[in-house]
Structure formats: structure tokens, C-alpha cells
Amino acid sequence: MASASLQFFAFILALFGAFGDITATLLPNWKVNADVGSNIITAITQMQGLWMDCTWYSTGMFSCTLKYSVLSLPVYIQAARTTMVLSCILSAFGICITTVGMKCTKLGGDTDSKSHACFAGGVCFILAGIFGLVPTSWYTREIISNFLDQTIPESSKHEPGGAVYTGFISAGFLLIAGVIFCTSCFKKQQGAWIYPPNQHHFPSTEQESNAGYNLKDYV
After folding, report:
1. H/E run at residue 189
2. How many structural domains compose the chain?
3. Which of 33, 66, 121, 185 has the fewest C-beta atoms lying within 10 Å of its C-beta?
């Protein structure tokens, strides 16, 4: 029962991680630059994401521009696009597989099949967490390096936005969920190896008695 409850907790974490992964991929605020003029009315916030760049004015106006050209983008943005999409796909696969392999569901067949499915889903979550952690770390590194560069003007410097923090948290949720699923299956298999099922063997004394009985027949 404890293992089933732990798997259910890991599944909830995986759901939050997958939802946050998709949200971080689509959000336009991976990096944010706020320009404030002499009057508060002229304040604008420029946001840049993986798929679009947006500008929000303090007056309430909001405009976005899609990034159609892929080759014109920096390498870290192209890599972030690819890895985040892979992370979303792997997390979706992990949810489908672990739904079959969890102990609290009636899908997946026998115990061994459910255990293998649970382990495969945990591996998908771990890979999804890694694919989600790499682009967010790389993107944050680029933002910090540009912010500390003295040759770049202040108006062109940015700070990490909410999408980066969402990606970090989602990757952590997916990694924790994957480790829990893999560990629960591994503990079960390890227990089966350490404590193998009892096997009934015929005692050797019975064979010796039969051999003695046969020798007496020849005397």
C-alpha cells in the first residue's frame, strides 16, 4: 500500500511537471527587459520567448511578434526549442506508460508487466527532466553573461523571466517522479532476488532408503 501511495504521489508530481513543461515552452517571457521613462505611463516591458517576442505597455496594450525564421535565431534558442519539445513529448509518454504500470490501476496485466511499464515510465520522466533542465540552464547562462558584459548597453540587457523558473521547477518535478518510479520497481525486483521463492526438494534420505531397499531385493 505504501508503494502504491508513493507511486500515486510521483504521478501527481509528473502531471505538474508535464503541465509546467508545456507552459514554459509556450510562454513568451523567457527573458524580460523593463524600460521606464520619465513618466510611469511610458513604461514598457519587452519579453522574449522561444516562439515569439512580446511588448507590454503600462497603458494595457499588448503586442507580439512570432519568430518565423529558425536559422536566424541564436544557437541556444534553437537548442531550447528542440529540447523543450522533446521534454514535453517524453513527459506525455511517461504519463501514458505509468498509468498502465501503477499498482493502483487495473491495467497492464500481471505484476511483472506492470513493474516493467512503471520502470519505463520512470525513465521517460528522468529523460524529460534532463531535456527540460538543459535548455533552461543554458538560457539562464546566456542571460547572465550578457547582463555582466560591459560592452552591451543597459537598454539591451535582460533578466530571467517567469518561463525560466517554471521550466526549472517542472524539470525538478519530472526528475523526482522518475526517480521514485524507477526506485520503487527496483526495490521490488531486488527483494525478489534476495528472497527467492521456496522450492520443494526431495530429501536425499528418501533416495538412500530406496537404494537400500533395492539392494536388499538382490540379497
Report:
1. helix 162-194
2. 1
3. 66
CB within 8 Å of 157: residues ≥ 6 apart: 33, 146, 147
Phi and psi angles of residue 20, each rounded to the nearest 5 degrees, phi first: -65, -35
Tell me what pLDDT residue 41 has. Answer: 52
pTM for this model (two decimals): 0.78
Q: What is the pLDDT of residues 148-204, one digit of tens each?
A: 888 888 777 888 999 999 999 999 999 999 999 988 876 544 444 444 545 444 454
What does the block give as the cell for 101?
504500470
Beta bridge partners of 160: 31
Angle at CA of residue 166, ends 162 and 172, nearest 5°: 150
**The domain containing residue 150 runs over which residues?**
4-27+71-194
Q: Amino acid identity, residue 183?
A: T
Is there a contact between 174 and 126 (Cβ–Cβ < 8 Å)? Answer: yes
Position 187 scores a pLDDT of 52
39-43, 128-132, 184-188: least confidently modelled range: 39-43
| Inside any domain, residue 123 | yes
Q: Write out the H or E segment, with its range, that includes residue 159.
A: strand 159-160
Task: Give the chain's end-to-end CA distance (angstroms, integer).
Answer: 64
158 neighbors 48 (Cβ within 8 angstroms): yes
In a domain, 97, yes or no: yes
CATH of the domain at 100: 1.20.140.150
